[in-house]
Specification:
With 261 residues, the chain is an alpha+beta fold. The protein has two domains: 67 residues, no CATH class; 159 residues, Transferase(Phosphotransferase), domain 1 (Orthogonal Bundle). The chain has six helices and 14 strands. The strands form four sheets. Strands 6, 7, 8, 9, 10, 11 and 12 form a seven-stranded mixed β-sheet that branches. Strands 1-2-3 form a three-stranded antiparallel β-sheet, with helices on one face. The N terminus is likely disordered. This is Protein kinase domain-containing protein. InterPro entries: Kinase-like_dom_sf (IPR011009), Prot_kinase_dom (IPR000719). One of its GO terms (molecular function) is protein kinase activity.
Length: 261
């Protein structure tokens, strides 16, 4: 696609645009100043600014119909929020100080992204990051709403206060990525060297029975220990069990809810 020039801005080009007719998500791949950026738009992220959300949804209709009301998808590329729009959608989530005060908080500029290829930092969300003291942790992007964020942080506080054994294979909260004005950008959790392998992926038709029994026992004993400490693993499913490089099972994700009964 043709490169574009803004007022005094470097030239950029939208080289790919994808969207789905099943939801309101869309993705741009943009080249600018010799760098490649992936920009993902989710209409729900504009919830604090109805005018931006309406405009985003309108341009998705334009893209679906190729042309609408005299506009084409090229006009979408030129559209961007400006000071005349009602409100900016914030990238961080504002959370109360008393919820965050129990945890170390790090400014985004203090967090180092760990990547074998530095160029990956331009096109993928960070996962493995390093704290100022050299500790390697897992970066989990912020929850979508205050309720789920509060629930998840409170659950990790219960785990912390329970004084569970260090060798218990569960994810733990090490801190928050938080700006000076109180916006939380993500959670810093235990880094588990698993190559993104969940129990769903690890269990295969040819998996040895002894290995299956090992994983079942590890999950059972971990959940039992959590319950003894008064901590509920609300989102219990195979996708929330990670299998590390030593074939050990880890229980993760304490942000899920549960039904009393």
């Amino acid at each position: 696609m043709a490169p574009r020039v803004g007022d005094g801005n470097p030239m950029y080009a939208v080289i790919e645009f994808t969207f789905s007719d099943e939801d309101t998500d869309s993705e741009f791949i943009v080249m600018r100043s010799g760098k490649r950026f992936i920009i993902r738009l989710f209409a729900d992220n504009f919830s604090e600014s109805p005018s931006l959300k309406d405009r985003d949804l309108f341009f998705l209709r334009v893209a679906d119909e190729f042309e609408l009301e005299g506009l084409t998808v090229d006009d979408f590329y030129d559209w961007e929020p400006n000071e005349d729009d009602a409100e900016w959608t914030r990238h961080g989530l504002p959370l109360p100080h008393d919820l965050c005060s129990s945890w170390p908080c790090f400014n985004p500029s203090e967090i180092e992204i760990c990547s074998e290829r530095p160029s990956d930092a331009l096109s993928t969300a960070p996962r493995k990051v390093r704290l100022p003291d050299g500790t390697t942790v897992f970066f989990l992007k912020r929850p979508m709403d205050r309720h789920s964020a509060k629930q998840e942080i409170q659950n990790y506080k219960k785990i912390k206060d329970a004084g569970l054994e260090d060798d218990l294979r569960i994810s733990r909260l090490h801190g928050l990525v938080r700006s000076e004005d109180g916006l939380v950008f993500g959670l810093l959790l235990t880094y588990i060297d698993c190559g993104n392998q969940t129990l769903t992926c690890a269990v295969r038709p040819d998996s040895p029975l002894i290995l299956r029994r090992k994983w079942a026992e590890q999950v059972r004993s971990t959940v039992e220990r959590l319950h003894e400490a008064g901590v509920l693993w609300g989102d219990a499913k195979m996708d929330n069990v990670l299998v590390d490089e030593n074939d050990d099972a880890w229980v993760v994700d304490f942000g899920g809810g549960y039904t009393k009964g």
